[in-house]
């Protein structure tokens, strides 16, 4: 008889709580409303945002709008690598000002480094994150 090893989630309840507050931010709210076809923010990509935030070790008071977009950009980069939707992230953050793009990529590099370079999120982990609150809008 083989015993199946049960994985313990690395995502803490406070990371879910922070994620639940995201729609209160007007830029994130507008972004999610704009992406009604879920090209950039489907349920798996948003689950990856939670996983990345947890891996980065952010406390709820540290979490800011930029972290959401850094994690979402990274999730899109890992799963889809489709350039136009990722460019939409820049539009919502910076408007038509491309001078901020290098800063964004520098912050993205720091964010990945803070996660210990662990950018792969399994489908099982995404589903576990989604199962945390079945009534959640995601």
UniProtKB/TrEMBL annotation:
Question: What are the protein's GO molecular function terms?
Answer: protein kinase binding
A Pfam family the protein falls into: Spy1
In which domain of life is the source organism classified? Answer: Eukaryota
What is stated as this protein's family in its record?
A: Belongs to the Speedy/Ringo family.
Write down the species: Trichechus manatus latirostris (Florida manatee)
Q: What is this protein called?
A: Speedy protein E4-like
């Amino acid at each position: 008889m083989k015993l199946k090893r049960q994985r313990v989630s690395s995502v803490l309840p406070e990371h879910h709580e922070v994620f639940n507050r995201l729609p209160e931010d007007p830029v994130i709210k507008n972004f999610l409303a704009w992406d009604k076809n879920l090209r950039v923010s489907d349920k798996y990509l948003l689950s990856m945002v939670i996983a990345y935030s947890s891996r980065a070790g952010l406390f709820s008071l540290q979490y800011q709008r930029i972290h959401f977009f850094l994690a979402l950009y990274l999730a899109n980069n890992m799963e889809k690598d489709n350039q136009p939707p990722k460019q939409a992230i820049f539009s919502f953050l910076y408007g038509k000002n491309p001078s901020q793009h290098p800063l964004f990529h520098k912050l993205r590099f720091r964010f990945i480094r803070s996660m210990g370079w662990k950018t792969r999120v399994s489908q099982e982990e995404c589903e576990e994150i989604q199962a945390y609150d079945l009534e959640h809008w995601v």
